[in-house]
Design the sequence.
């Protein structure tokens, strides 16, 4: 996919890391499940927040640096969503792909579509992660939202990753 796809995968890593570093008042069960997608054409990996937090804290520590080095188009899209608030929508595109972002409640959804039919990436993450990418201080707590990444190939296969 294109540079937008790469950008979205970077955002996904930050979203997962932010979820993993969220504080928790009670110890949670650690779990990982791998299952077949509903249509039988793909794989779904679901990781508990407790397991994601442990793995990422071991790899990166418990502190996240929230100073995004964003490309101007992507930063502009996030700033539009921030300015317009809940229900906002913004799109950026180039010759290869289109990225559409929507703010819904305390979440933001991204849809990256390859214009040559090469597939799509869908990402749902807490709005707090977008604020972090914009270099703003945000409060990330246990209830701030789920993270979901879905990748669909042109041939119908799919991969979904969720932190629950």
Sequence:
């Amino acid at each position: 996919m294109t540079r937008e796809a790469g950008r979205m995968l970077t955002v996904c890593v930050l979203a997962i890391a932010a979820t993993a570093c969220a504080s928790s008042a009670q110890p949670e069960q650690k779990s990982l499940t791998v299952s077949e997608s509903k249509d039988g054409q793909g794989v779904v990996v679901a990781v508990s927040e407790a397991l994601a937090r442990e793995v990422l804290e071991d790899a990166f520590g418990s502190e996240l640096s929230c100073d995004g080095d964003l490309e101007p188009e992507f930063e502009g899209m996030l700033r539009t969503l921030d300015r317009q608030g809940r229900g906002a929508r913004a799109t950026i595109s180039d010759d290869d792909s289109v990225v559409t972002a929507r703010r819904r409640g305390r979440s933001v959804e991204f849809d990256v579509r390859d214009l040559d039919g090469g597939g799509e990436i869908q990402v749902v993450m807490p709005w707090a992660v977008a604020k972090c990418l914009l270099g703003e201080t945000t409060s990330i707590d246990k209830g701030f939202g789920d993270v979901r990444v879905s990748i669909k190939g042109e041939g119908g296969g799919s991969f979904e990753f969720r932190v629950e």
Residues 20 and 55 are 8 Å apart (CA to CA). The mean pLDDT is 74. The longest strand covers residues 97-104. Helices lie at 3-20, 49-60, 72-84, 127-133.
